[in-house]
Amino acid sequence: MIDVDALCKEYLETKKRELRSISYDKYEITINNYILPFLKDHPIETINTDIISNHLNELVNSGLSHNTAKIIKITLKGLYKYAESIYSLKHIDFSVIHVGTNDKSTNILDEYQEQQLFSYCCNHIDAFGITIILSLYGGLRFTEICALKYDDIHLSEGYMNVNKKVQRKVNRQNSLSKTVFSTEDLQEPEKRKVALSQFIISYLDEYMDQYHKDCYLLSNNYKLPEQRIYQRKLKDLGNTLGFEVNYMILRNTCKEKCIQSHVDIDTILKTFGLSKLIVSNDNKNIDINFNQKEMDKLNPTFNNFKDVIIKSKQN
Predict the structure, then answer these.
(1) Which residue of 66, 88, 89, 194 has the smallest Cβ count within 10 Å?
(2) How do residues 44-80 score in pLDDT, each as one tens digit?
């Protein structure tokens, strides 16, 4: 029987020579968290396409993101091919293994659900509310929001710089925690200047008080915010309101609202950090002011935000 612990260690050594340290960390985390436990229950000599497919789809059905399941499949494929060349294992055609979509990652909010979240945020102007607003009306990824510093926000000019995201890495220090979080520089098109709608400017203006420019927006200090706290709070809020929600759903809802509101395509690409598409556009000299006017199309119409703020302060 193949020693999968030794096999994984050998395979990771080969990847260490090929990959950047941050990419290698992703491989190591995937193998330790998902693949090793799987191979402990299903010896590598016995696995086949059905076993792998069933396992991956069970993970997705239990809440794992579709993207993570695909990463597990790709990593397992590389590991198996490595073992196949050494131990003459029976060939597995990974191209026939299909991972079903995770409805939780593709859903969008309906108008009533959006209104409930909007009302909550208007009455809770805090870091958690910021994460919802910037994802639902700004289109930012949750990891990008967590990496924002006050110095990235330019309210008077109506934009924010999105330069980094929070990245989980393997903790190689002597510590109880197996992983640590740090920031990673974004590359274009993800590195971008995002126009802020008037509603978001008003919300941030209420939130931002005394601060230092090098502090993180959410934690209001020099320490990265705890991602799991906000993810859990959003899940709990959804349960309280009676529907499922996560940050991917918020971002997908923002995309859908952009399309329905006929936001300029270049503004959508810039806002979401997507690759350039070949589109016909006679307006080549688009600036941040144009982007801002386009994003104003997403401003909530449920309530007057300033009136809500005044009432909440009176209470």
Answers:
(1) 88
(2) 999 999 999 999 999 888 778 888 899 999 999 999 9
Give CA–CA dist 158/11, Å, rounded.
48
DSSP secondary structure of 186-250:
--TTTSEEEEPPHHHHHHHHHH--S--TTSBTTTSSSSPP-HHHHHHHHHHHHHHHTS---HHHH
The CA-CA-CA angle for residues 187, 193, 198, to 5°, reads 150
3-state secondary structure of 109: coil
Distance, in Å, from the CA atom of 82 to the CA atom of 94, rounded to the nearest integer, reads 14
Establish how many alpha carbons lie within 13 A of residue 176's alpha carbon, considering only the half-sphere containing its beta carbon.
Answer: 0
> Cα–chain-centroid distance for residue 113?
21
Q: Give the pLDDT confidence of 125-160 residue by residue, as tens digits.
A: 999 999 999 999 999 999 999 999 999 999 999 999
Q: Where are the alpha helices (DSSP H) in the chain?
A: 4-16, 21-30, 36-41, 49-61, 66-87, 103-106, 111-123, 127-136, 142-146, 198-207, 227-241, 247-260, 265-272, 288-295, 305-314
